[in-house]
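The passage that follows is intended for readers who have already worked through the single-chain material. We present the inputs for a multi-component assembly, then the predicted structure in tokenized form, and finally a short commentary. You are encouraged to pause after the input and sketch how you expect the pieces to fit together before reading on.
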Amino acid sequence: MSQLSTLKPHSIHIAIMALGGQGGGVLVDWIVRLAEHAGWTAQATSVAGVAQRTGATIYYIELVEPTPGQAPVLALMAVPGDVDVLIAAELMEAGRAVERGLVTPGRTTVIASSHRVFAIQEKMVSGNGIADSAQVLDIVRREARHLVMADMQALAAGQGSVISASLFGALAGSGALPFALAEFEAVVERSGVGVKPSLAALRAGAAVARSAAPPDPPADPMHTAPRPLPATAASAQLQPLLERIRAAFPRPAWDWLGEGLARVVDYQDAAYGGEYLDHVARLLAADPDADAADGQVAIEAARWVAVAMSYDDVIRVADLKTRAERSARLRREVAAGADDVVGSEEYFHPRMEEVMGLLPRRLADWLDGSPRLRDWLASRLSRGRRIRTHTLRGHLQLHLVAGLRRWRRSSRRHAEELGHLQAWLAEVQQVLPHDRALALELLRCRRLVKGYSDTHARGSSRFDRLLRAARELRGRADAGPALGALREAALRDAEGQALSQRLQTLGLAP
Amino acid sequence: MAERSFAKEVQQLRVPAGTEFRGEGILAVTKALLESGVSYVTGYQGSPISHLMDVLADAQPILNALGVYFEPAASEAAAAAALSASVNYPVRGAVTWKSTVGTNVASDALANLASGGVTGGALIIVGEDYGEGSSIMQERTHAFAMKSQMWLLDPRPHLPSIVQAVHDGFALSEATHTPVMLELRIRSCHLHGSFITRENRRPAFTLKDALENPRRDIDRIVLPPASFLHEREKLEQRWPAAVKFITERKLNEWVEGDLEHIGIVTLGGLANSVLRALKLLGQADLFGASRVPLYILNVAYPLIEDEVDRFCRGKRAVLMVEEGQPDYLEQNLNTLLRRRGLDTAVHGKDLLPRGGDYTVAALQKGIQGFLQRHHPAAFAAPVALSLAARKGAVDDGVPRAPVSAAAALAPLLPPRPPGLCVGCPERPIFSSLKLVERELGMHHVSADIGCHLFSIMPPFHLGATTMGYGLGGSSASAFAAGAQLGASKPALAFMGDGGFWHNGLTSGIANAVFNKQRNVFVIVDNNYSAATGGQDLPSSRAVNPNRSTMHPIERAVRGVGVEWVRTITRTYDVKSMRAALRAALSSKEPGPKVVIAQSECMLNRQRRDKPATAKAIEAGARVVKERFGVDAAVCSGDHACMRISGCPSLTLAPSGDALKPDPVASVDEHCVACGHCGEVADAAVLCPSFYKAHKVHNPGAAERWLDRWRRRALAWLQARQWRARAHRALFPLEAPR
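Having made your guess, compare it with the prediction:
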């Protein structure tokens, strides 16, 4: 027989990109049953990722309308340029499908969840290592014939179901398959497990698919904008400070100054807020171009001076962990009703350095002079602790530590931090008249200093290294951008390899 | 307890003859084994045939009823050796494993089996893990078939063909006294399709008959002079018998085509892809008809000389389609044609990729090249190439970027390497080792096969080599020289419980004792052969009605002479784990140091615990449910916890604070409260943002009463704190409850 058949049955090729544990197999089963129930021929197969668990899996299904007397020969893998429906259970996996050529303009319907499951590479970065969703989405949108996209994960979770159900619903609603919604629902009903929530998620998915164009994602989902400066302060005590912001600072920086002020007064007290504004004002006075319309220096100063002044310490941690909002959030997290019994256990491990930092300067200095007493104290104090904050005893322990706020300013740590702050600002002040870009980058370098113990030590040493680099770079035309690049490099990895490389490229000492 | 239960699916194995059977390839193979009157089945799990072992385990009652013996073997070598039951007796036996790794392990037994030959049918079902999604070195089973002269079946990826191959395989094995290999590629194993069943058959001659009437034939034993006789027998009797059987039974398929001057020779397993490629080139239809004649090799080895002659005679050129390298078949084809004096040109690796998966796209390109050379008329009219659709779609008014989408995406997409699961008990072992390395410096680490191999990936970056299943210990052997050379550090070797029982006990531990090695051995004892899907092992701490479990690894290693053993019964205890590793690595005592790190595979545990917990809550029992959380306001956004833990449920979230531009850590809903992140934050003195929250389901009256009082007292304190904060607030505060 060499005559090719003139019969061209309707056949549909579906590729599914899912991560391990997302239930891609269930979705495949449902699609196969849907088609088989309608008398179609269905063949499905999969290639699991390297891992059975966290890797990505590609499933592939071919559906062919009934061809009585003739059995179609079906392929076992998605062919670039020959896919009708692409389902992706995660945004980057949708991108990966496009990269693999599985999305053909003018042909492929793409059904994808817009949520992200971050890869380890994105999570390991000390700063923000998250891939650019907007760019990927943009390309997926451009390539797809028709795009159905929503947070299918949240949609399913909202109905107490799993993502396979909402994706199955979105497939129904997309109209990419010649089967009615009722037929999709019947498949889930026949499966007999978790029917009610699955049906709800299915319907939610279908509704999303039928609605208009998918919404645009926010530019950077990790970005939090500053709140607008309030007209009046919540506490009358702060009203004068609020007015001072309006009177003495450039308008573009107001919101940031509001955030900064709120942070430092919450951290310490209203007087501390006044000092905060003093620091920023002093810096702006050194700016020959202070009236610049963009208010860049004021914005950066407002942000990073506030961060520097509210350094992470045990008092702050104890304060944050004893708040009423925090108890309420915890109850929400475990989905507790008003009468449910909920508890929590905190993991603390203060080192002797932190304990010494809390002490008044004189006392800490005296202790430094009696190493035996200090070591004895260290052996008593520096160990891992579990504090059960739902008990009165545990809560009181933290409550008392939080109460040390009143003595914070006389502590050794505060003196050290204040010293750092002043040295850093003096540096910025010096640079500002000569190289605005470099001064801005110097301010932004404060982002490196954060956290506790080792993390704090690492950040501080890199911060110091960048301050030195700034001095070395002074006078160079590209000093600002160069320092910016160094900062980005310093945030990239914990080992400091990227920073060393960057320093080398710039011809600076390691 | 295996990861996936087939308890429901295996009921299909009982269906009467003539029923349409729908299911996965693996289930179809099991059904075919029962239909062919198999007496015993064994094997070793591993993707893509793990499920075959799981199906057989779940089908135990059905197998028992049919008088079929099943056991999970200790290794592939052990499984292959079991086929010796078919040497002297007319019993059919089947074994299965992941190839080529399993075939490597089994090859000694297989070579012996193939030399002496078999009386009863011996079928070796290999899951060919080659190409996309593979987790092993890229080699093919073909070489094993050739070197030991076992026939290799490579059926079309189509359930009826696969089922038929099982039936044919046994018959071919018996007709030729030769073991037969049946190769199933990854996608065939997971293929959903249907076929029409036959009746299950009890073996006519049983293993009981064999045991009660033992037989031996010294000519079947590999000992000179019989071994020389075997080689002659292979060439003079078994091979011709195979040629006759394969020809008469028409095991290979022919597709006639009108383009008679050319042809394609393809392996059965690749036939569907070849047909799809031809269809995309406009040279085939959806129903398997092709304009280019096809010779489909459902038998990959041996090539049938007369059939090749018949197909190629009168053709200007043929294209040989076999993936991977070396190009055994292409070479074979050339030899045959030259021997017959045919001048048909043979194409293959000149037009097709020399290595890697033969995807439809790769085949389409190669076949297009073949047609352009030998039948350019095929392209006189525009071919309905898939790429044409792409071009046609440009006119939709959407502006195009100058670069292709793929090129633009490549740098944007984060890679997704495999890693350990949520709550995996192995993660704290590696976190502990990372912490010990901060004190003692880096060590040479030999890795093994198993989930713990993921320690080589980020964030751990541990492990320098992996030489084979259970060989983690022995692959550190050369470094035992450290004692002799006065090295300041020992080598460290990892091994899983799976690898340990596979051969690690002897090749790694006993060998280390015998050779007075000072290396450190970490045996990861998570109750199961977890990487292959959670099958039980001798050291499993679960009750399995069909197996004897609960044989502690510590007893085994002490039994072979290890003196220094530390068993950590809860790997999540980072402090103890770290202390044990530190002690082992800094010990000056002679002899190997063994650390046994025990905690149950979380995936398996959750599968058992989750429904049990839900049931208990339903029944009104007091149940405490835990999960971890992170205080966003306390988290610094440095992500040191991610670098040292890597738990998938530890993820990123917006800080919710404009002054904190870096995303903060967050624990998602998949958390199983293993406590690792808290332990690590504590042991590594990271940060105090982690907390463990719990909710008590069905608390008692006293507990409720106490809780009420506590909450009242706390609320009073919190209200005071709230008022103080409100007094210094710029933005209105969230009101307390």
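Commentary: The longest strand of chain B covers residues 623-630. Chain B has 26 helices and 26 strands. How closely did your sketch match?
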